[in-house]
Amino acid sequence: MSDGKDKNNKPEPVVVRLDDSARNEARSILFHAYQHEPTFQYLFDHRRPGYEQRVRATIRELVDLYLDLHQEAIGIMVNDTLVAVAYIGEPDLRLNLADQLSWRIRMVLTAGFASTRRYLDYHEKIKELLPQPLAHQLPLMGVNPKYQNRGYGRLLLSTVERLCAENPRGSGLVLDTGNSRYLPFYESEGFRSLGKIRLGDFEDHVLFREVTPSERKAIPG
């Protein structure tokens, strides 16, 4: 039995599937991951008072929505601490946030009408760039700032990629980022650009990684 440490006495990260019990921890990780991201700062107007409250509300409502829709969620545990999380949208979900009436009402009440409208417009622009056939989407992914730069983000993403390869209904994985410093990392993982979304004075990059035939063949069974 493993004691959770490798031969160099370093804790071994463990990939786990998340359930409802991890909801609050996941929200906290994602809030700290996204609050300084350019895309969120633009969408939720970081120059106006109440920015952090709007980000918390949005993270909360998105996590709750994906859990209610029974979408896949995974995390990385280190010494019984959840340090990274990812929520994955199935290819056949075809989520239209504008149709999620209860979600929209909660967003307006907590994040405000302007932020909700801006986020819905942004979501629609991403949908316009999605590849055919449909792919998995990665709407939320984050690493606890205290555990960054230790390879947990790459481990998390590679696990997501493997889950996508196991699902024959999807052509690959789509994600987006408004932080250009992450682009070399995603490119090293095989992502290519689907297009850009202009947000104020910067661009949000929508990226796609196709599942290769060799990855499909490597799946047992």
Q: Could you provide a short overview of the structure?
A:
The protein has 8 helices and 7 strands; from the N terminus they run E-H-H-H-E-E-H-H-E-H-E-H-E-E-H.
Shape: globular
Order of secondary-structure elements: EHHHEEHHEHEHEEH
Cα-atom radius of gyration: 17 Å
Structural class call reads alpha+beta
Largest sheet: 7 strands, mixed
Termini separation: 27 Å
Residue-averaged pLDDT, rounded? 90
Catalogue the unreliable spans.
Answer: none
Write down how many β-strands occur, each being a DSSP E stretch of 2 or more residues. 7
Helix percent band:
40-55%
DSSP helix count?
8
Quote the beta fraction. 15-25%
Main-sheet strand order equals 1-2-3-4-5-7-6
Report on the structure:
This protein has helices spanning 23-34, 38-43, 51-68, 101-111, 113-129, 152-166, 183-188, 213-217; strands at 14-17, 72-78, 81-89, 136-143, 172-177, 192-199, 202-210. It has 221 residues and is an alpha+beta fold. Strands 1-2-3-4-5-7-6 form a seven-stranded mixed beta sheet, with helices on both faces. β2 and β3 form a beta hairpin. The two termini are 27 Å apart.
